[in-house]
Every structure is written in C-alpha cells, then in structure tokens.
Amino acid sequence: MEKSGPGLETELRLGLPGGSGGEVEKNEKKRVFEEFDGCEDKAAVHKNQVVGWPPVAAFRRKNSFNGGKMYVKVSMDGAPFLRKVDLTMHKGYSELVRALEDLFGCFGIGEALKEDEENYEFVPIYEDKDGDWMLLGDVPWEMFAESCKRLRVMKRAEAKGVGLHAKDLLKGLSKEE
Amino acid sequence: MCLFQSVMNYFPEEVLEHVFDFLTSHRDRNAVSLVCKSWYSVERFSREKVFIGNCYAVNPERLIARFPRLRSLSLKGKPHFADFNLVPHDWGGHVYPWIEAMAKSGINLEELRLKRMVVSDESLELLAKSFPNFKSLVLVSCEGFTTDGLAAIASNCRFLRELDLQENEVDDRKGQWLSCFPESCTSLVSLNFACLKGEVNVAALERLVARCRNLRSLRLNHAVPLEVLQKILVQAPQLNDLGTGSFTHDPDSETYIKLKNAMKNCHSIRSLSGFLDVNGRCLPAVYPICTSLTSLNLSYAPGIFNNELIKLICHCKKIERLWVLDTIGDKGLNVVASTCKELQELRVFPSDLYGVGNAAVTEEGLVAISAGCPKLNSILYFCQQMTNAALITVAKNCPNFIRFRLCTLNPVVPDAATNQPLDEGFGAIVQSCKGLTRLSVSGLLTDQVFLYIGMYAEQLEMLSIAFAGDSDKGMLYVLNGCKKLKKLEIRDSPFGNMALLSDMGKYETMRSLWMSSCEVTLGACKTLAEKMPRLNVEIINENEAGDGEGEASFDDRHRVEKMYLYRTLVGPRTDAPDFVWTL
Questions:
Q1: Which portions of chain B are predicted below pLDDT 50?
Q2: B488: number of CA atoms within 13 Å, CB side?
Q3: Whether B185 contacts B159, CB under 8 Å
Q4: Would you state the pLDDT for residue A28?
C-alpha cells in the first residue's frame, strides 16, 4: 500500500470545514470521479475514462473481455494466502460481500459500509485502474466492476484516523496530473 | 430524345427488365432509375431488393408504393455512435411499423436484414406469421427482443433458410426456442446464435443439424460444450463456416480425440470463429482446418494466449480476413505479416479497455503488416501509440486501402517519437490511398489533418472524428473537399456554427451528420432546420428529460450536447421520444 508522500502538498483539494481537509490523506481514501467542469475533461481524457472511448461496441465490451469473467485477487489481513473472486458472478456489492465472507469464513465485511455503524472489524477496499485504493461502495456497481483490479479486506486497526462512512468522505478532491 | 434513348425505347419492357436483372448493386439500380421515366417505371416494378441506409429517410408507405414486388429489405436504424453509448437507449429505430405495413400490403417478404434497430418480440411474431415465404432474417447490433421472439420465427417460418444473429442484446427467457423448429424443418442453410447468453437444448440442436442437409454456416453460443460440437461436426462435415461455442476440454480425453477426427473430416470450412471459452491446449484440433481458412475471428477469445495464437496463425496461410485481440502483440503481427500473404482485412481489438501499462500493439505491428501483406485493403487498429513515420511508411506500402480506421487508446496521444500531432501521418494515408472510402482518425490532430483530408480524400464516404481539430476551419475543409461524403460523425471537437452553416445544401447530398460535445448552438441548429426543410435536425437532450421547463429554459446561445441531422423525404418522425427535439 502506498504511503502518502511529499507529493501530496501539490494536490488541489476542497474540504468540508471542520472535516479532515487539513490532514494528510492516505491514497486509499481519495475519490476519483469528480464533477469539475473543464479540468475533469482533460484528466478524464488522459486516464481513458471518457464515455465511449476507446470506441469499442457495447456488445463487445460486455462479451469479449476475459471470456466474460473478471477474476480479481482478494487478500485479507492476517490470512496466509489470497483468493480469487469473479466479479461477473455478482450483481451488486451485497452479493460480493457475502461471497467474500464465504471465502474467508468470517462475517461482517460489509459492516463498515453501513451508515451509523460504529462496530466493524473489517474494511473492504479495492485498487482501481489508477492504482488508488478506494473504499468499496461509493460508485455504481458497473463502474466499480470495470475499474477494480484487486480487493483487500483490511482490518479496522489499519484504517485509523478518518471517518469511513461514505457520506463523511471528502467531496471535491481532485488531483492535478 | 437522344439516339441511345430512341434505340432503347424499341425494346419492350421485358427486355429492359431482363437487362436490369444483371444489375445487382443498389447504386447501379438507383442510377438506372434516374435515366428517364420509362426506365424508372421498369426498374421499380422489377426491383426485389431494397437497401435503406437510414430508416427515417423514407417511410414504409413510400417504400411499398414504389417497389410493390419487394422481397428483400435491409434497414439501418440508429447512428453509428450508438454503439459507443452516445445515443440514449430509446432514441428510436423501431422495425414494427415496417413489418406491419408490408404485412398489410401483401408484400411477399422473403428477407429482412436489420442493423441497429429496435426489434420487439411482437415484430418478430408478426413477421413470422405474415410472410409465408419468409426465408432469411439477419439481425446485427439490434435489441428489444427475447428468445420468445426467436421461438416464433422458428415455429412459423416453414421455409426458413437463414437465422443470423450478430452481436445483439437478447433477453433469455429460458424457453426452448431451438426446439421450436419443427421436425419438418430441413431448409436451414445458416444458423448463428453466438450472441445468445442462455442455454440451448443441445439434443434439439443435434437433431436440427442432422436433418438440415444444406446447412453451411453454424455459429454456436458459449453454452454449447465441446462434446456437442464434436457430435455436430460428425453430422455436418459439409459446413463452410463454423463458430465454436465453448472450446475447452481435457485434451487427453476420448471426446477430444473424436473432435480432432471430426474436424479432419471437415474439408469445406473456410471461416472460423467463436472460442468463447477456450483451453489453448485444445487448439491443435483446428490446425487441419486452418490450412484452407480464409476468414478467422478470434476477437471474442481472450482465453487464447499469445504463443498459442501465434502457433495457430502459422497454419493459416490463406487467410484473407483476420480479427484478433491486441494480445497478439507486435510480435504476433510480425508472424501474421510473414505468414498471411493473402490478408485483405485485419482488425485488432483492445483486450484491456483502460490501456494501463499492457502495451499491446504499437505502430511497429502495423508497419510490419503493411510491409508483409500486399493485398491489405481494410484495417481497424486499436493501439497504444502511433507515429507519423509509421503511418507514412504504411501509406507507401499499402496504397490500396479502402477502409482505414485507427484508434489510439488515449484519444489525444501525440506522435510517440516526436510528440507532434499525427496530421502528417494521416495526410500521407489519404494522399496515397486514392480509393479510400472510410476513415477514422485519432490521436493528437490539428486542423491540418482536415486540410489534407479535404484535399486528397476524393472517394471518402464515411469519416469519424473524435477529440480533433482546432477550429471551424477543420470541419470546413472536410465539407468543402470531400465530394462523396455520405456520413460524418464528430465528437468532442471544437467545430461550431460557422462550419455547420457554411454550406447547408451539402447535407442533402449526405446521409447524415452527427455532432456531439462540439461548439454548435441551439440557434444555429434552428437556423439550419428552418432553411432546410428536407433535413431532420434532431437535438438529443438527456438532461432535460422530465424537466417541465424544457424548451423555454433553452437559450439559442446554449451549446447543443448532441445533434443528429439527416436528409429525409418524409419530414419529422412521429415516434421521437421526449428527449429528442426535431427542430
């Protein structure tokens, strides 16, 4: 996992007053899809996140990648080996979380994502195409499935200092490339 | 009256009709119908095949009135950019009114070919029940139907020869559509259901294949396992075109050995596709077929690894058409270049949509192909990077391109070696390839590339532009220069009102113009619509749907997000949804 480094001083940020805007954020908390006019377009173009580009027909997009399957590695803190899960087998986050719970024989992986939930042991996160670690559940399922490269079930103790409820996460973060 | 006409008028109509029978292309027949009134009349009564490139350019009534002996109809609906999710789902392109009108008028329809149209189960049912001689249904990139609609076709079309489903979105109803072909159905020549997601009744499939002795083309879906493929091939060694379903099995098993033997016996297969689920170690079974293959489509087979792919290609010396994923790499393309000397069409699709790091193919592969394959005339190439030098070399090696479509994964990437725009490279292509009819450009491009296109691309009929150009001048160069332009589609480029309105008459010589995320305003579109009554100027406004303020809140200076205009003989369409305004 990347640690935040001196490069973060150059990040442009907007933060909620009184929120953790002043603190150094670990990369895994950064949000990627933002709603700025103009600068989003250029950044989006460079990151190949533009709608309909590359111009591959929708049918082909759905059917020709990895034989329709999307296997990604899943690691769990404390487990001696990793597992793999096929994202196309699930239609949404709750199904995925259940599958992860089955794989690792534990319960409560999804608790961290629920509102007002204070007692949770695990935090499910994923690495996206940019190499950033993201909290599960913020973006629509399809968007997540297309951008997820690997999953990690992190132990709460590792994620100290910042509120993890999706609503609390800072909006309006952007990164100048 | 000229001498020629007076001579021709001595021939009775039957003779003219017989002469016209030799004209198979739509363009030729269209040209002939313009010569004089009597030719128009003879031609229209004898025409059996009609092609309509934009279903909203005419309507069913006019079609039927002009061509009463219509037997075969081809229709296209949504604009091309609909493939890339740029057109809202329910924009239009419904086939039902066409089928309904033809049924009511007693047209003896035998063939229907549709592309990018909305096809409901009701339309399929009506089709199946209204035309007793119906023989051929080809649906490409369509949607709106389920396997229930297919069941209706299978049950009712007693003389069905062709059911060809290419890349359609079909809802699976878990019915038994394949079992609906009655035992009396023995006429199938072509059956393609590769795009279907669900299970099929394999026993019914095997029986169907066994009794259709004229079956030449069969493309299976992923649900048909290798064991069944083997049995089918034993029943149908006469196949010309095979699309395998799943192609995975234990290569040491008896089933696999039986498959190998069955394939050795298929001497007529010239076209191969599928491998929707594949174990590379099973591929050697197809090697005997490879030697006579002319067409190979592996673009839906990401499960084939690079080395297996290369080994396969080494056997394909006669290939004329090759579709692959970019996992083939530049190295694999070099093998194609040295092996496939008959290659005419190559398509290289991306395997990794976000293009992060896995540099799949580059300009090097393209140059190798252009040098090694003298008959190359059509290319679609998705690549990580490109250079002007490479394009200039390709242009020199291959002056015979008819279709040249290049898509860089980053739409504005400059020349990888010099960091310059790719204007010179594409300029070389259009200058060298005098027969070019279709061009897609990408990468960093300025107005200069359009100057070249306008100057040299004299035969160009279709041009696709994205994230390119600097000013209205770019679009103007194209509109002024490309005399044969039929379809122009532009997205995310800084072309605006001045370019749009400079030559309004031009659009009546074209089939359609698409502009999205450009600089044209509502006011300019309104002006165009007002001055050109034989164009439909459609504005697509997804954001305003359901917003009561709608049109009132739109100012003429407001930029239009999506505009689609097309020539038409029948005015604004009556089936436009709320979010489409025809100005």
A1: 355, 544-550, 552
A2: 29
A3: no
A4: 32
Residue B496 DSSP label: B
Q: Pull the structure tokens for residue B145.
A: 């139907």
Query: A38 in contact with B at a CB cutoff of 8 Å?
Result: no
Give B497 to chain A, closest Cα distance, Å. Answer: 21
CB contact under 8 A, A55 and B302: no
**What's the rounded Cα separation, in Å, for the pair B221 and B231?**
15
C-beta separation of B490 from B475 below 8 A? yes
| DSSP states of B212-272 | -TT--EEE--TTS-HHHHHHHHHH-TT-SEEE-SEE---TTSHHHHHHHHHHHT-TT--EE
Phi and psi for B485 in degrees, rounded to 5?
-60, 130
Closest CA of chain B from A142, distance in Å: 14
* Mean pLDDT along residues A142-160: 80
| Cα A11 to Cα B377: distance, rounded to the nearest angstrom | 49
- Contact between chains at A52 and B350 (C-beta distance less than 8 A): no
pLDDT tens-digit profile of B180-199?
Answer: 999 999 999 999 999 999 99
The verdict on a CB contact (< 8 Å) between B83 and A51 is no
Q: Which pLDDT score is estimated for B425?
A: 98
* Backbone torsion region of residue B562, taken as left when φ is above 0, otherwise alpha when ψ lies between -120 and 50, otherwise beta: beta
Residue among A46, A59, A130 minimizing CB distance to B141: A59
B248-to-B253, B284, B314, B344 alpha-carbon distances in Å: 11, 12, 21, 30
Residue the block writes with tokens 């291959």: B398
pLDDT band at A23 (very low <50, low <70, confident <90, very high): very low
- Across the interface, whether the CB atoms of A58 and B84 are under 8 A apart is answered yes
User: Of B49 and A18, which is predicted with more confidence?
Assistant: B49
The DSSP annotation for B162-186 comes to: EEEEES-EEE-----GGGGS-TT--
A89-105 pLDDT per residue, tens:
787 888 899 888 888 88
Return d(Cα B582, Cα B566) in angstroms, integer.
11
Residue B110: which of B145, B163, B55, B73 has the closest Cα? B73
Scanning every residue of chain A, which has its alpha carbon at the shortest distance from the alpha carbon of B347?
A: A56
- Give the whole-angstrom CA distance, residue B117 versus residue B54: 10
Question: Position of tokens 């293009």?
Answer: B355
Q: Give the nearest chain A residue to B298 (CA atoms).
A: A64
CA distance A140 to chain B (A): 17
Asked if A59 lies within 8 A of B195 by C-beta distance, the reply is yes
Give the global pTM.
Answer: 0.81
CA distance A79 to chain B (A): 29
CA A35 distance to own-chain centroid: 17
The whole-number pLDDT of residue A95 equals 86
Cα–Cα distance between A100 and A112 in angstroms, integer? 14
List, in sequence order, every residue forming a beta bridge with B403; answer none if it has no partner.
B378, B438
- Looking at residue A91, its pLDDT comes to 73
